[in-house]
Amino acid sequence: MTELDQVLPMSRRKALFGAATGAVAIGMVSSAISATPTAPAAVASPTQLPPTKPARWHRLRVDDPATPARVLESYKKGIRAMLALPPSDPRNWYRVVMIHAMDCPHGNWWLLPWHRGFVGMVERIVRDLSGDPYFAFPYWDWSVTPRIPDALFDDVLDPSHPAFLGSFEEFKHKFEKTVAGLPCWKASKKPDGLFDHDTQYGHLLQRGYRFPADFWFDLGESPASKWFFDRNHTRGLTRAKPDFDAIVRKATSRQTVLAALGPNDFESFGSAKGSNHHRGVSKGLLETQPHDFIHGVVGGLMREARPEDGPLGAPMGSGPGGFLQGNMSPTDPIFYLHHTNLDRLWDVWVRKQAAIGGPILPEGYKTESSEGQSNYKTWAKEKFLFFIDEKGAPSKKTTCADYIWPGEFDYDYQPGTAEELVALAPESKIAPQRFAAEVRNPAISTIQAATCTVAVPSGLTQTCSYQAAPASLVANVELDFAHHASGAVLHVFLDPPSDTRELTPSSAHHVGSILCPNMVHSTIAVNLNLNQALRAMRECGRLTETRTLKFRIGTQQALPDLIADKMANSCGDAVCHIADVKAVTLVTA
Q1: Domain map of the chain by residue range?
Q2: Fewer CB within 10 A of the terminal residue: the chain, N end or C end?
């Protein structure tokens, strides 16, 4: 599949958005002991998977009855110990969370390797402070369990617990002096006297953080959005109502996950190449669906749907709030269980690729020569400068190449959703093709949907509508969101029926949903797989041989009803503008 290079601008204080990216091979063969590659010794391009050895630590499914109670008990003990550390200790729970807020990548091909390093770093700290030498993070397989597991509301596994800070004011009062004195705010020069951009401060400047006041503004002082929430608004789902709605269930379903693991090259699976890990480019399916919607629903971007909301759910900005919606998301302990599952799926993709002889890393990784530049070298040499070790000292592992393989942390996974893909994955038999759509009525508001049409070869939609289709048809949708659109959910329909009552997430025509994350005004590009909708349309007799496909992209039925009036309150206008569709491109993968 060709690379989806939709390069997007990035402005200050923009909450970055993501794209699943990277490669890992843990060689899981059973739920007991699996083979794990060791980390490469240098940045040099690997020509094959590294040698394997039995893993020392095992990441288990959190709600598997066979998972020992000790796992979550040790996690609680580690959290309490980290919360009790003084602000001056880099291992303090909130100090660790601030590493994510200052450095995390989204919307480019560094998201998965960076988060592997971050989650592995915290795992080591919890293991050390809990006193449990066997501790490893469990993972939350949301495809199997489409709700927050009940155990994750216990004690300090819930960020509303009194052990956590109760307000932004309390947080800032406790940490302001420490943050102001961090060495990351100090500028450094090269031997020639020029400013050194490859330092912590150089990286902060790329995110628009000139001094601590910029950072605090994003955390809780911006009138447009915030990343720190008070004790009564830490999660969007509760113990009494922990279940996903229909939209999130579809975004995290096994079918969606299998589609997300379908691309046949690293750049397509991991999203477009970025200039650096601080700037978003384009979201892959794994990122725009399960990753984003878990962050959105647990982060309380939208409240629970009510009957008066209509078939497509609650309006934007109506949720109670919660940490997972912003860059302080690791404040919620569930963050690590979410990202371990994404890391596990990354492994499944790599082993699927290895089974069909496909590429597992960016272009150029098989080239042994150290001369010249390649996508792999650009990706592998990117600096990650904020990580620490289990004792709080700066990590000596400072490049993406250090986190290509999980051998750095010596873990494996109990098999979960999509494991079967490794044995069943067919190699694509259709050459990559691209089809640009003609966008009509690009504006999306509370009373209007955007529409577009695209011509495709005869027979392509039928070919991609079968369970064992030789290729996937993917829609890349580029959107320019309005500044007040945080929490808006857009729904994409293929050849939508004329009866607007059928425009629901359960419709055969529903391709998928797009969540506008907690950010200031931004352009994003997302990928949606059409195969599932094509199959559903064929099975109910609605898939025709037409060579022109029509798309509808909007928030709800395009009718000026009570829903539109409520959503309009978010922006103070009678009609609330939400986004503009910049481009839609279909790609075969």
Answers
A1: 35-231+246-295+326-424, 434-588
A2: N
Euclidean distance between CA atoms 357 and 355, whole angstroms? 6
* Main-chain phi, psi angles of 260, to 5 degrees: -65, -30
Of 206, 212, 208, 207, the C-alpha closest to 186 is 212
Pick the CATH number of 35-231+246-295+326-424 from 3.75.10.10, 3.10.180.10, 1.10.10.10, 1.10.1280.10: 1.10.1280.10
Q: How many CA atoms lie within 13 A of 210 on its CB side?
A: 1
What class is the 434-588 domain?
Answer: mainly beta
Structure tokens at 96: 């660790």
Residue whose tokens read 């009866």? 499
Q: Is residue 553 helix, strand or coil?
A: strand
Q: In the numeric block, which tokens belong to residue 388?
A: 């620490």
Report the alpha-carbon distance of residue 48 to residue 120 in Å, rounded.
24
Angstrom distance (rounded) from CA 84 to CA 82: 5
Give the tens place of pLDDT for each residue, 540-571: 888 887 779 999 999 754 433 333 444 444 55
Single-letter amino acid, residue 193: G
Residue 305's CB is within 10 A of a number of other CB atoms, namely: 17
Rounded CA separation 185/181 (Å): 8
Q: How do residues 41-92 score in pLDDT, each as one tens digit?
A: 445 556 566 666 789 999 999 999 999 999 999 999 999 999 999 999 999 9
> Could you report the per-residue pLDDT of 136-153, keeping only the tens digit for each?
999 999 999 999 999 999
Q: Distance from CA of residue 60 to its chain's centroid? A: 21
Spatial distance between the Cα atoms of 53 and 33, rounded to a whole number of angstroms: 10
* CB burial string 207-239: b at 16+ within 10 A, e below: bbbeebebbbbbbbeeeebbbbbbeeebbbbee
C-alpha 497, offset from chain centre: 31
C-alpha torsion 119→322→104→352, nearest 10: 60
Q: How far is CA 398 from the centre of its chain?
A: 22
